[in-house]
Amino acid sequence: MRYAVVSDIHGNLEALKAVLKDIKKKKISDIPFLGDAVGYGPDPDECVEVLNSECKILLAGNHDRAVLGLTDIEYFNPYAKAAILWTRETIKKENVSILKGLPISKAIEGKKIFIVHSTPKEPKQWHYLLTLWDAEINFHYFDSKICLLGHSHQSFIIERLPSGEMITYRSEAKIGETKRYIINVGSVGQPRDGDHRACYAIIDDSSVKLQRVEYDIKKTQDKMRMHGLPLPLIERLERGV
Predict the structure, then answer these.
(1) How do residues 177-226 score in pLDDT, each as one tens digit?
(2) Distance (Å, rounded) from C-alpha 157 to C-alpha 237?
(3) Residue 141 sits in which domain range?
(4) Residue 14 in contact with residue 217, Cβ under 8 Å?
(5) What are phi and psi of 121, to 5 degrees?
(6) Which helix or strand (DSSP H or E) is residue 31 part of?
(7) How many distinct structural domains can be found in the chain?
(8) How do residues 115-134 score in pLDDT, each as one tens digit?
C-alpha cells in the first residue's frame, strides 16, 4: 500500500500541477482524490480533466455538487457563491458529466481505508471535523482502520488508541497495528492552516506524512483577476487562510 492522497483542488491548476510533479518524483502512481475539484479557482475544466486522467479513484465534494446544482449554495459565503455561479457558466458539459458520476465516499484497500470528502457521519450534510470531540463521534461511523478526508482545508493526523485516548500529529505519524486513524490530507488549492503551500498526504502500511509543496501563487491570482473572481478569494491564497 502506497498512496499520495489529494483533496480540495478548487480550480487551482498551478497548485495541482506542482503537487503531481512532486508525487511523480516520489514514484507514487496511486493518487486518490477526495473531492472539490472546482470552486474558488480559475481553472475548473483543466483541474477536472487532469484529475480524471491521473487519479484512479475520485470523490465529489460539496463545491463539485454545488456546481451541479445538487448542493444548496445558500449557506455558502458570498465569495464562494460567486465563484460557484461563475464556474457553472464556465465549465464544459463533458466535465459536468465527470463530476456527476463521482461518489462522496468509498472503501479502498480491502476496506482497510475509508475515504470521504467531509465526515463519515452524515457525509451528504458536509459537516466539518475540527476538534477531538468531532473525531470521537466520527470514529463510530466507519469500521476501517483509517479514514482519509478533506473539506476543512486544515491538515492533521488523529490517532485513537485501543483505550480511547486520542493523539494529534501535525505532520507525520507511524501507523500502529492496534490503533485507528482519522487523517485530514489538507488542501492542494487553498490551504487554510496558515501555510500557503499546497498540501497532500503520503500513506503506506507503516506511516503517514503530510507534504507541502510551493507553487506559482501569483499566476493563479492573475488568472482569478482576469476572470473577475472575488478579491478576498485572490488575496487569501498567499496568506494560507
Answers:
(1) 999 999 999 999 999 999 999 999 999 999 999 999 999 999 999 999 99
(2) 23
(3) 2-239
(4) yes
(5) -80, 125
(6) none
(7) 1
(8) 999 999 999 999 999 999 99
